[in-house]
Amino acid sequence: MKIIECPRDAIQGWKSPVATALKVEYLNTLLQVGFDTLDFGSFVSPKAIPQMADTAEVYHQLQLEGISTKLLAIIANLKGAEQAVLFEHITYLGFPFSISETFQQRNTNSSITQAFETVKAIQALCLKHDKKLVVYFSMGFGNPYSDPYSPDIVGEWAEKMALLGVEIIALSDTVGVAESPLIEQLFSHLIPLYPQIEFGAHFHASPFNWEDKIQAAYQAGCRRFDGALGGFGGCPMANDELVGNINTINLIEKFRDIYPINHQAWQKAVELSKKIFI
Fold first, then answer.
1. For this UniProt entry, which segments traverse the membrane (predicted)?
2. Hey, is 30 helix, strand or coil?
3. 242-251: average pLDDT
4. What CATH number should be reported for the domain holding residue 186?
5. d(CA 172, CA 135)
């Protein structure tokens, strides 16, 4: 069972600038909680995502000694990956690969075909530098653009990623449209078909339907879940202000019997989050 805490996803689109010092304090506290992985920052254009412009500066202030939690950084192109692999303690590079042609263009200014070529190059770079690539299947449960979508299309791209040696794929409910039957169908099909791949769930949901999505994925064998403290972040194209990341508070409560954490550090992180998301 793995919980991936994603403060990067919560902070990157936040309306108010988050001071580097506060960000560092928050991340260092989250590192003590006991999450498997911390999605802490991204190496992308500071013009596109100004909240992440200080990722390198933040990295150098993280207190990692004695910490088991691994670091994940998001990258959107080969240039970002070339930066990220130079940081010793970053274990994972995350790339948003979209099942929707429209969203791929909007998110990374490239076609799906071009994005797949980028994945090839980043995977080779990761292997060279002893990093692991996490491929996020954005719009993994459908899209609002009338682009072609089906579970078979998801399966075809999973096969292509498997042939590249990609070891982690996170199915992402980018605009919060996934329903339990489809979630269960995808995970129950893909997990046994590709035992060499760890399939994760990166859901966006409202406060009212998050648990159905998590339960459907868990019943289908998924054991890797992304969340963000407070449920902040998510995709602005969801056109629903209630749709955000799964609130990690809910994940910790749901899995409290099987996922032990440092509750003192967790409570401190909850209090610090109130200074950021105001």
1. none
2. helix
3. 87
4. 3.20.20.70
5. 10
For 67, the token pair is 């910490």
The span from the CA of 142 to the CA of 128, in Å, is 34
Range of the domain at 152: 2-276
- What's the Rg (C-alpha) of the chain? 17
Closest CA to 262 of 36, 35, 66: 35
Q: What single DSSP character describes residue 63?
A: -
* Contacts for 86 with CB less than 8 Å, ≥ 6 apart: none
pLDDT of residue 234: 67
The share of the chain scoring above pLDDT 90, in percent, equals 90
Can you give the pLDDT at residue 237?
A: 46
* Residue whose entry in the numeric block shows the structure tokens 């990220």: 84
Buried b (16+ CB within 10 A) or exposed e, 11-33: bbeeeeebeeeebbbbbbbbbbb
Average pLDDT over every residue of 120-140:
98
pTM score:
0.96
Number of folded domains in the chain?
1
Beta bridge partners of 179: none
Cβ atoms of residues 96 and 65 within 8 Å: no
- 27 backbone φψ class: left, alpha, beta (φ>0; ψ -120 to 50): alpha
Mean pLDDT of 24-44: 98
| Cα distances (Å, whole numbers) of residue 45 to 48, 54, 55, 79, 113 | 5, 11, 11, 10, 22
Given a cut of 50, is residue 223 above it in pLDDT? yes
User: Over the range 94-125, which residues count as b (16 or more CB within 10 Å of their CB) and which as e?
Assistant: bbbbbbbbbbbbebbebebeebbebbeebbeb
**Using one digit for the tens of pLDDT, what is the confidence trace for 114-129?**
999 999 999 999 999 9
- For the chain, the first-to-last Cα distance in angstroms comes to 31
Q: Which residues pair with 26 in a beta bridge?
A: none
Task: Assign 250 to helix, strand or coil.
Answer: helix
